Amino acid sequence: MLPLCVLQTLGQGAGWIAWLVAGSFKRRSNENFLRAFPQATLQMQRAAMLSVGQMFLEMPYWWVRRNDRALNRNVAPADWHLFEQALAAGKGVILLSPHMGCFELLGPVYSSHHPSTVLFRPPRMAWLRDWIVNMRTRPTLKMAPANQSGVRSLVRTLLKGQTVGILPDQVPVLGEGVWVPFFGRPAYTMTLVQRLQSLTGAKIFVLGVERLGIGKGYKMHIAPMHEPLSEDPVQAATQMNSAMEAMIRLAPTQYLWGYNRYKQPVA
């Protein structure tokens, strides 16, 4: 119910608390940030923590907004013709985004223009899973769990010439990824995107939603991947991580550096 600018201010306050209190998330955030950007100043590291606070308070705000016109007013005009051209080929579109800025806006804004299905990792608690699905789902936006059933749903969506969305900087389960560099450090990276493109011929776009300041809206960055991913899974994952890095470099203080991107996968 609160205005977005108030939530963003409160989010900064929450970020300040996280910054002032020592903990594993803060330590990992600073370590990952400095490994990727050795020149990052203390101010930049603190800004990244404030961004995390804003990110988490913005999520429920956008979950409950259902006015597509109002949603789009918050995002600077994007090159929508790029998506329209790709969809016209009839092979579907794959949208990739790192956990950067207000990534939660991507699904609602994109699906207000074109129907889409987004892959998500369901929480273990059934009530929380059902609640998140209910909040994120819209008439033109469906959720697909990160399991075999969800992958089949993505394939069906692409074969219909529609759009799927994936956050590929999450660590997949053991056996569904390969070890490739991410900001110069080995990270277990999903091979799903390469398999989906190989099967359908879908065009890939890398997206990012940059927060422009408290109450100033957002900017959507769009980067088409002009070359198809390699048929070799390792090379394909390397290409994808390189594209993720390029997007993150546009707003490095708005990336979720505290996520344990370099952890060992589990079965």
UniProtKB/TrEMBL annotation:
Main location: membrane
Keyword terms of this UniProt record: Acyltransferase, Cell inner membrane, Cell membrane, Membrane, Transferase
Pfam family, one: Lip_A_acyltrans
GO molecular function, one term: acyltransferase activity
Subcellular location: Cell inner membrane
Recorded GO CC terms: plasma membrane
GO biological process: glycolipid biosynthetic process
Protein name: Acyltransferase
Organism: Fluviibacter phosphoraccumulans
Phylogenetic placement of the source organism: Bacteria, Pseudomonadati, Pseudomonadota, Betaproteobacteria, Rhodocyclales
